[in-house]
What we know:
Helix content: 10-25%
Low-confidence stretches: none
Strand content: over 45%
Organism: Streptomyces yangpuensis
Protein name: Cupin domain-containing protein
Strand order of the largest sheet: 1-2-3-9-4-7
InterPro entries: RmlC_Cupin_sf
Amino acid sequence: xxxxxxxxxxxxxxxxxxxxxxxxxxxxxxxxxxxxxxxxxxxxxxxxxxxxxxxxxxxxxxxxxxxxxxxxxxxxxxxxxxxxxxxxxxxxxxxxxxxxxxxxxxxxxxxxxxxxxxxxx
Length: 121
């Protein structure tokens, strides 16, 4: 069995108050610890991925804040205290300072992180 904390997970993406820490925690599962300042919008960072959206599924829990999730089918707002599943094809936008933890298939998640690193700026 494997465990980690936010502080133990290495930073994968940061800048402008944004912080994404990730660690593989066993098998094909990666945990992501996200801190998004209000106004963070991943629209530009996800351009070039299929449908210009994140193609990776995520299961998690919103610790703090409010997050708008844009999908092909519309938009949904997630709030502090909610557990969630985000299927492939989504773009997050922080409506308030937001923190969440999610769990994702490792290979897909790492491809998205590498894309965002190259597209962040």
